[in-house]
Design a protein that fits this description.
Radius of gyration: 18 Å
Structural class: mainly alpha
Helix content: over 70%
Mean pLDDT: 87
Order of helices and strands: HHHHHHH
Number of helices: 7
């Protein structure tokens, strides 16, 4: 089982990085009076730095980089850097669409072949029945697909202020979804684990 206190520290750092990004946007938008697109670009400096710190802390406390948080952090660094280079906040907004769309495609695409990526990533943490791995893969695949679709709708139809608020709400939704999955995991857990499992961290 993964070290739960270490995982909690990393998740708190991830949340801190998101709060720092949102705070930077609010300062640039409402204190400095920048337009939404430029406020996003300026806040991206904070996002890139905070994402790098979150990856470093994850390595220090767990002595490894968990795959999903590593993917999320890597996407944040790459798309954050592109946003700064091209001065285009759209690149930051579509990061969520591409990241979650890719995860959804991999997870849902694995179902017809009976090869479940979560099983290979998480079997060292807890063991599930085949039905459990399939159900968990389906649930997260649909969740990631929904996030990608909703993100596309929000950033294309709403203001930058609304998109930033949506980005914060998404972290809460992700945490709630993860807690919900613990009940599903417990139902399909192979009963030789003494420690209750934690849900996979999507690293959003």
């Amino acid at each position: 089982m993964a070290n739960k206190p270490a995982s909690t520290v990393r998740q708190l750092v991830d949340f801190g990085a998101l709060l720092a990004f949102m705070a930077a946007y609010a300062v640039n938008r409402f204190v400095r009076g920048l337009e939404g697109d430029q406020a996003l670009v300026q806040a991206t400096w904070v996002l890139v730095g905070a994402s790098a710190i979150a990856l470093l802390v994850g390595w220090i406390v767990e002595r490894r980089l968990a795959p999903l948080p590593l993917l999320a952090g890597g996407f944040a660094l790459i798309f954050g850097a592109l946003t700064l280079i091209f001065n285009d906040p759209v690149l930051l907004k579509i990061k969520l669409t591409i990241q979650n769309g890719l995860l959804a495609a991999v997870l849902l695409g694995s179902l017809p072949f009976g090869k479940y990526p979560f099983k290979y990533l998480l079997e060292s943490a807890f063991r599930l029945t085949e039905e459990g791995w399939r159900g968990l893969t389906l649930r997260y695949g649909l969740y990631f697909a929904a996030v990608a679709i909703v993100n596309e709708i929000v950033w294309r139809t709403q203001t930058d202020d609304v998109w930033v608020a949506f980005r914060g709400g998404l972290w809460i939704a992700s945490a709630a979804f993860g807690i919900w999955q613990v009940f599903f995991i417990m139902k399909h857990l192979i009963k030789d684990d003494d420690v209750p499992p934690t849900a996979p961290d999507p690293g959003l």
